[in-house]
Amino acid sequence: MKIGIDKMGIYIPRYYLDIRDLAKERNIDPDKFVIGLGQSKMSVNPISQDIVTFGVLAADKILTDEDKKKIDMLIVGTETGVDQSKSASAFMHSILGINEYCRSIEIKQACYGATAALQVAKNHILVNPDSKVLVIASDIAKYGINTSGESTQGCGAVAMLVSRDPKMLEISNESVCYTKDVMDFFRPNNSTYAIANGKLSTNTYLESLEKVYYEFSNRFGEKDFSAICFHIPYPKLGLKGLKEIKREDLLEEFNNSIMYNKEIGNIYTGSLFLSLISLLENSKKIKANDLIGLYSYGSGAVSEFFTMKVVEGYEKHLSIKENQKMLENRVKLSVSEYEEMFFSKIEHEKEIENKEGEDVYLKGIFNNERTYARKI
């Protein structure tokens, strides 16, 4: 049975900060961010938007009423959950109006969570071939004003509908996972922001890549990859990864795969799949039956190398014009506007205005309960 990604949708907030402006404001050479990180812009969200609204708005772009009837599992991969007990997927399930006989869960393992969700979805379809699974990767990467990680922030969501006989990508049965207990990046319960050891995280990312990539080759033989997509905390790290496994022959497609990431920034669990969409929408050479390698990494650290095969007619199911329009129509913020918007705090018991006119928004937190609404 062929199982894989039938549809993919992305949602990015309508505001962004030019990374050059941030560098100048922080008295840093812009080339350190633009060339050193490979970053151009980063997405910024208002308080009326969070990972729940991101995920719903991404899913809205791809789901039909028939899909909602057949979905019997909804999995959210995130490391910026909105509640310590209740899953973000439970909120999304309600807002999306999905079949009530549905398993809704949230998976956490840093940036790896959505890949775990995708593999769980695949295994579910294997034993329930008529069902569909909605996988959503939704996150807000936020490190604080004037911190070392400030230039690698971002936010957004990727929604993927998994089914048998997929229209876009077939997930193979071949994969290799690797775990190493390391404190390269973590967020204790008493901390608003993550604590990162940048050098250790970079080294662990590259070490883990070597482990899973070469073990994959040992187990399953050398593969004729048309492209390899990476988890992209920032584009230059993915490039280091490509060189680490000596696959500079795939540089052209790598550059296609990071075009959206450069414009959006780090979206944690969704970064790998944003890269995959970027590849499919910007490559002139990817064709049916091409094999794509994928490297997923989540600090702490868990990693996986796996593959997907491009399905005949996949290009008919891309949203190139819509996604490019979404990026082009964003509003540029000054550094002071970004600081005020991105780091503003929600006032409890006070209704939040949907100034952006989004179809779905966070209405407020009342009696400690998050309340969402659809625009009427």
Automatic annotation (TrEMBL):
Q: Name one Pfam family in it.
A: HMG_CoA_synt_C
Q: Which residues bind (3S)-3-hydroxy-3-methylglutaryl-CoA?
A: D29, Y143, K240, N266
One Gene Ontology term of the biological-process aspect is:
acetyl-CoA metabolic process
Provide the GO MF annotations for this entry.
hydroxymethylglutaryl-CoA synthase activity
Domain Hydroxymethylglutaryl-coenzyme A synthase C-terminal span(s) in chain numbering = 239-360
Q: Which residues form the active site?
A: E79 (proton donor/acceptor), C111 (acyl-thioester intermediate), H231 (proton donor/acceptor)
Gene3D superfamilies, sorted: 3.40.47.10
Query: In this protein, which residues make up the domain named Hydroxymethylglutaryl-coenzyme A synthase N-terminal?
Result: 2-164
Cited InterPro entries = HMG_CoA_synt_C_dom, HMG_CoA_synth_N, HMG_CoA_synthase_prok, Thiolase-like
Top-level taxon of origin: Bacteria
Q: Which PANTHER family did the record assign? A: 3-HYDROXY-3-METHYLGLUTARYL COENZYME A SYNTHASE (PTHR43323), HYDROXYMETHYLGLUTARYL-COA SYNTHASE (PTHR43323:SF2)
The family note in this entry says: Belongs to the thiolase-like superfamily. HMG-CoA synthase family.
* Protein name listed in UniProt: Hydroxymethylglutaryl-CoA synthase
Q: Which organism is it from?
A: Sneathia vaginalis
Source taxonomy lineage? Bacteria, Fusobacteriati, Fusobacteriota, Fusobacteriia, Fusobacteriales
